[in-house]
Amino acid sequence: MQLRNWQQQVIDSFPTTISKYRKFILKAPTGAGKTVLASEIVERFYKDKKIIVLCHRLVLLEQLERALSKKHKVRKLVASDTGHAFDGYDILLSTNMRAKEMLSDAISKADLIIVDEAHRVSPNGVAYKRIIDNFNENAKPDAHFIGLTASPERSTNDQRDQLNLAFDAIIDCANIKDLIAEGVLVQPIYRPHFVHDLDLKSIDTSSGDFPVTKLAPAIIKSSMIDYALWSYNEERLKVTEKPISAWFCADISVAEATLEQIRQHGIEAAIITAGTPIKERMQLLGKHERGEIEAMVSVGVLAEGWDNPHCNIIVHLRPTLSKVLWGQSVGRGLRAAPNKEKCVVIDVSSNWSTFGPVENLQWSLWSNRRSNMQFMNRFNWIGQQHDDEDNSETYLLCKNELANKTRCSLIYKKGAYEDDTCPVCGTYAATDIYKEQKLDSSLNESGLHHLFFDRVPKVFDEMNLSVWESLGNMAWKSATEKEKVFLAFCMAFAEVSGEETQSETGYWDAALAAEASIRTYLVKNSFSIKKQDDFELSLIADGMLAGKQIRTLQAHYGISLCGTAFQTHTPAESERKYQKAIKIAERLAILGCSAQDNLPYFKASDLTVT
Length: 610
Description:
The protein is an alpha/beta fold and 610 residues long. The chain has 23 helices and 18 strands. The strands form 4 sheets. It has a 7-stranded parallel sheet with strand order 3-4-2-5-6-1-7, with helices on both faces. The protein is globular, with a radius of gyration of 26 Å. The protein starts with a helix and ends in a 7-residue tail after the last strand.
């Protein structure tokens, strides 16, 4: 089989990878060919070995069975199976909940375990925790545990439920931009509209996302579906090939309302949900791939494990705080196909303005509450673009009134079109989103970076270290909660390693080791940090200037820590220390620190507090 460039690179480096790591994630975009890669890894390195392939959905099992059965003896585990594993076959396919005893027997015998859609692995969940613990305790010494995913991140504040607890490393195999350049994927073309009458502000998101029981009625009450149909009817006429679309909805009520409107426009459409029987589901998806069904409306199904390379329009009708959901669903339309030039992404959910283009998404092995709370601002990404000192960009919101009395509401970049006229309605009736939404912040990360590296050396050179170095205990003891966050940042900068890391796992290992050291110091000295609603960069800047919030004692003691670290490290090391220190301070602010801490990397109960 002719492998793509990125797949060949993974294969070539695989012996080195498995010599360094026992449990790792292979990260590549949706549509890049991860299933083909997995099959090739099995063929090249585990031929006639015992292999388990896990995934969380039955439809994924069907796809994997078809792909792997071509070259291997495959058995799909069913719930009623008993007996010994690998009796007459080499590869066992299963979800993580099937035939627990037989699966447990298989883990002890397996040479390789592959987990598809590995972002679903919950180290603190019952099913995967059992599998991970079994592997750690009973697997062969040379067995490997490999995850496949396009989005290695879990949107949870639970520090016992992070991917770094299940995997040792992430191998970044390919990115969307490179695969577009190689012709493996097509360029997404975004058409984002801001639906003014969709009220999300009153919906409680303490669960980490918009609950569908509240979200669905808000969507149906709004003009979101109308905007989606208006945009779709325009864009379907512009694609060079036959329009084939996937529509992502919040729940069945939204999907049914959407389906009804699509059909009213004379478009062949169908609906598919998690409750659709597999046989019927596969028949519908087959018709969709052949173009017999133009619009496939889905609820919680197509975002993972579905591949129709002919899909050239994605319509997003599901507002979310999940970067994973946004990236996974849009990625389903990017797979290349003959005569397919692009994939149009119609977003009426404000996800594009919240997260940005999927080709620019960044992922993290560890998350905390702030990592998704920032997305409460549905113009989060647009605000970041405006605040970027190196490449500031302004976005406009078209307010032109259309014939049906609704606004155009297209979001587009200032300077991208002649006279800044709207590319959809052809008028100039736009406002600056940044100014209208009052997205201005007192300080951005770029500004703080400049201030820190300019200010610390200057102040440090004028300090009498013999005075300030002995005042640490007093600075912490008298500190306010905001001053404690500033001191935590300064201590993190002094403590954390500045060595270059080769993987995100290495990055977080270094960051969490420093965080654990700071927590140890605080708990042993009976200091604490209360959980805070947000992490304010302005606190760090204020401390650099000994301003209004951070008093002189705390400011100068903190700068003495940072300045000492500056003197003993190269500029490159200081840069790496700074980036990790920001993350550590953010985590300490959001998670807090107390003598009751029980985290995977730090247990306060293990300390002898004097």
